[in-house]
Design goal:
41% of the residues lie in helices and 18% in strands. By secondary structure, it is of the alpha/beta class.
């Protein structure tokens, strides 16, 4: 496998030096623009704890935000060099298309239609939609939502599809109350003006844990038939930026699988298994193939951590959210997360 990896890396390096990747409109990859401006322009949400939200000091925290920091560490060697732009559901895709942001990392499900307008790169989270409802209403399944009012964000969110599926499956009907912001929809529900509130499952868990005054007074019910693969997205036509973002996310999952952490990355770079040492800076071909520093992978793990560390820091048992990883576990633990080979 190592001989095959060496041959492949040599081929990739030749292609990269020959400039085989088609440039974006204007002749520059986002990678070049990021290096020139000294920061990654990334999406933010309108304030989802554990996923994407500024803290009391204005520093963006959350799983999605840390994915953006990984890109900054890979390209610039500094995970702090990120500018976050808060976007609602209707604003997020146009922000990618117009170049307002370099990368979308904000609870966005990969779909055919969306991928035809922007380029989704890879899955970062698997989720499903959920309804928060007051236990006093006695609702224990989607069927019990019949006749209830549901606060929700309009403007392109897939939660509406999930709600429509539930209506069809259980032959019931709800009254939708739309808002431009999921935060406004949430606050309206918690103020008692709606019977229920629908959003992404992880977002729902975080809202209950961090916003609800009495989480025990509310129930969470999953709706919709599908698992939603949430991913990062970039403008179409930028192969260089696609490569960097795709393989940076892959690195996070690979590092967890191979036991490479923020705490031991220095030791692993010196005395770990051969492929670990090569990827963490021992073989400059990995960085050259992507147009990055030879130690790009080391920088990402040292400054941001692996996938598990990012999850635990923002969503796991060390947080008020305590979200179950479910399908976001490694495949070796019954989940769907696995890294692509570096051969």
């Amino acid at each position: 496998m190592m001989r095959a990896a060496t041959t492949l890396l040599a081929t990739l390096l030749v292609a990269a030096m020959a400039g085989c990747s088609p440039p974006t409109a204007g002749g520059q990859s986002a990678v070049d623009k990021i290096k020139a401006r000294g920061q990654v322009n990334c999406s933010g949400s309108q304030g989802i704890p554990g996923l994407s939200r500024p803290d009391e000091k204005g520093v963006w925290r959350g799983f999605d935000s840390d994915i953006c920091r990984a890109f900054a560490a890979a390209v610039l060697g500094d995970a702090t060099k990120v500018q976050f732009t808060p976007l609602n559901a209707a604003q997020r895709l146009p922000a990618v298309q117009t170049g307002e942001i370099d990368v979308l990392s904000r609870t966005s499900t990969i779909t055919f239609t969306r991928d035809m307008s922007i380029r989704f790169v890879t899955v970062t989270l698997y989720d499903s939609d959920a309804v928060i409802v007051r236990k006093s209403l006695g609702v224990t399944s989607p069927a019990g939502l019949n006749g209830k009012t549901v606060c929700m964000q309009g403007g392109g969110s897939l939660v509406e599809t999930a709600l429509s599926e539930a209506e069809a499956e259980y032959r019931m009907k709800v009254t939708r109350v739309y808002f431009d912001s999921t935060i406004t929809a949430r606050d309206t529900y918690f103020a008692g003006r709606c019977d229920a509130y629908i959003t992404d499952g992880l977002a729902a868990r975080s809202q209950l844990a961090t916003v609800a005054k009495k989480p025990e007074d509310h129930a969470l019910i999953f709706v919709g038939s599908g698992v939603e693969p949430n991913g990062i997205a970039i403008p179409r036509g930028d192969d260089r930026w696609y490569d960097v973002t795709r393989w940076t996310v892959n690195l996070l999952i690979w590092a967890e699988l191979n036991g490479v952490t923020q705490a031991n990355v220095d030791e692993m770079a010196k005395s770990g298994p051969e492929q670990v040492r090569r990827l963490l800076g021992g073989d400059p071909a990995y960085g050259k193939a992507l147009g990055l520093d030879p130690r790009w992978a080391y920088n990402v793990i040292k400054q941001v951590g692996n996938y598990k560390e990012i999850w635990n820091r923002n969503l796991g048992d060390d947080t008020p959210i305590k979200a179950d990883r479910r399908l976001n576990r490694l495949y070796t633990e019954g989940g769907l997360m696995f890294p692509f080979p570096w051969d």
